[in-house]
Design brief:
This protein is mainly α. Helices cover about 75% and strands about 0% of the residues. It has 29 helices and no strands. α14 runs antiparallel to α15 and α26 packs antiparallel against α27. The longest helix has 15 residues. It is elongated, with a radius of gyration of 34 Å.
Length: about 525
């Protein structure tokens, strides 16, 4: 019997059907039972369905078909046929046990529990019954009872690694991590190559940030099971947690080569590419994730955020709208949708998104800040200040708060207050071009042009594409009649963006400076 990989429930009760091999010419029933015994469940279903059609009252056919449906995970049909078989032979404990497995997978835990409790009275030393009873208690969050049942199974079947593992899993759920680790190590004494035990020990060490120990157990797992996709995937997660993105990408890719159905690693792989700022690769993998999970809100949401991050705003809106339709009220995706609308200059739709967030979460500082930014950009300074000061009360260490508060004070002509806001911003960061742009505006407004020029140049040094800083720098040079510097500063704006919104005004200024000041520019016709 192969080692189970996840569920504590163990499918060993199929011994209920006596295998008959004496006939030279097998009929559907005998062939179906042979397929069932050998684990060829789909084939067994097809053969035993015909056997049931021929004889709807055959206990062997009904019980065998129910067991075969368990094997293909069709638990509704398994329950139906096992119920019919049980009605024919109410005393058959094996059918009852399989029926309990079907009930448990259909989340009818109390029915399963009733069966196991009765069966254990009949077979108190049946370790599988105790194990499966433990699984039911675990599903019902009755962890102490689950632990007792798994412990009983382990004591009845000394040397069975899977019972020790199940015991460890429930101890983890009880937050008794040291005891869980001991249980997993006991399982490894019984079976040093147990994949479940090796993975379980590795995960405990990973959660404790004991990365080297976790890696050692994962390497052992891969040594014993080179095709274990989950071991590869968990190795990828381990490397990602340590910031080793290239190694993480390698192991996630290996996991997916071994098992393409492991969508969790496909999502992790895409996330690694986001961290590497390789947005094209990230979007490609997120699209695969969506194609395999079209009804999954998270799939659409994460794709939408990747598209937003890579400045594909229209596509981001489409994905994020789907995510929000599937999972209404998800703050994460609603916030991203609002930002995408902002980038598309759809301020009203963006405001609706942020306002919806605040209806459910009035203390959401990010949504409130975005509403403040929209109001500021729309010229509604009173509303902007209300929201920005609201964020200041909630999250005083937010850089954007101090920037926009400084800009609001400048709009109100409160230069000293603006400087105070920018000073607060500078205490949090010195590498944000907006800091120096804002200070440049404040100096210009207070007629200190020399310092205005210094700050605009600092902003441009941090971000050479900051066109507003370049525009203000050119105006500052113009105001002190440094016409040569003004000319080249104005021209640099159009060199970066030929469609700058003040293009026609700049062209007139350049033409006037050439004519009146005699500035030589052999390439002026380019504009």
């Amino acid at each position: 019997m192969p080692e189970p990989t996840s569920s504590p429930l163990h499918f060993v009760m199929i011994l209920l059907t006596a295998f008959v091999a004496h006939s030279a010419a097998f009929d559907d029933l005998d062939q179906g039972m042979a397929a069932l015994k050998e684990g060829r469940y789909a084939e067994a279903v097809a053969l035993l369905k015909r056997a049931v059609e021929k004889d709807p009252t055959s206990f062997r056919a009904l019980s065998g078909l129910g067991s075969a449906y368990l094997g293909v995970s069709d638990f509704n049909k398994a329950r139906s046929y096992l119920q019919k078989a049980s009605r024919l032979k109410p005393s058959n404990t094996a059918v009852k046990a399989n029926l309990a497995i079907a009930y448990s997978h259909l989340a009818q835990h109390q029915k399963a529990l009733d069966i196991y409790q009765k069966l254990i009275l009949l077979e108190p030393r049946n370790h599988e019954l105790h194990n499966n009873l433990g699984a039911i208690y675990q599903a019902l969050n009755q962890f102490e009872k689950a632990l007792n049942a798994f412990s009983r199974a382990a004591s009845l079947a000394q040397g069975e690694a899977r019972y020790a593992i199940n015991k460890g899993k429930v101890l983890e759920l009880m937050h008794r991590m040291d005891e869980a680790l001991e249980a997993y190590k006991q399982a490894l004494k019984y079976n040093p190559g147990s994949l479940r035990a090796l993975l379980a020990v590795a995960m405990v060490h990973k959660n404790r940030a004991e990365y080297e120990k976790a890696a050692a157990f994962l390497r052992t797992a891969l040594k014993h099971h080179p095709h274990a996709a989950k071991a590869q995937g968990e190795m990828g997660r381990l490397y990602e947690m340590q910031g080793k993105l290239d190694a993480a990408i390698f192991h996630y890719s290996q996991a997916l080569k071994l098992d393409v159905s492991l969508d969790q690693y496909l999502e992790e792989l895409a996330g690694c590419y986001i961290k590497k700022e390789d947005y094209a690769s990230a979007i490609s993998y997120y699209r695969q994730y969506v194609s395999r999970n079209p009804a999954n809100a998270r799939a659409h949401g994460e794709l939408g955020i990747a598209l937003l991050t890579s400045s594909k705003y229209f596509d981001a809106v489409q994905s994020l709208k789907k995510a929000n339709e599937m999972a209404p009220g998800n703050t994460h995706y609603l916030l991203a949708l609002g930002k995408a609308y902002q980038e598309l200059d759809k301020k009203e739709l963006a405001s609706d998104c942020f306002a919806e967030i605040l209806e459910n979460d009035p203390d959401n500082s990010e949504a409130r800040l975005q509403l403040g930014i929209i109001a500021f950009e729309s010229g509604n300074i009173a509303v902007a200040e209300k929201h920005v000061r609201g964020v200041l009360a909630l999250a005083p260490a937010t850089i954007d708060v101090h920037y926009y508060l400084g800009m609001i004070n400048l709009r109100k002509g409160l230069v000293d207050a603006a400087f105070a806001s920018f000073d607060e911003m500078r205490s949090l960061t010195k590498n944000d071009e907006r800091l120096y742009y804002g200070r440049g505006l404040a100096y210009a407004q207070s007629s200190d042009i020399r310092n205005a020029i210094i700050n605009f140049n600092k902003a441009i040094k941090l971000n050479e594409n900051h066109l507003q800083a370049r525009w203000e720098l050119a105006k500052a040079y113009e105001s002190i009649e440094d016409r040569e510097a003004a000319y080249w500063a104005f021209k640099n704006v159009l060199l970066i963006d030929r469609n700058f919104y003040l293009k026609e005004l700049i062209k007139k200024k350049l033409e006037r400076l050439r004519e009146e000041e005699g500035i030589v520019d052999d390439e002026w016709q380019n504009f």
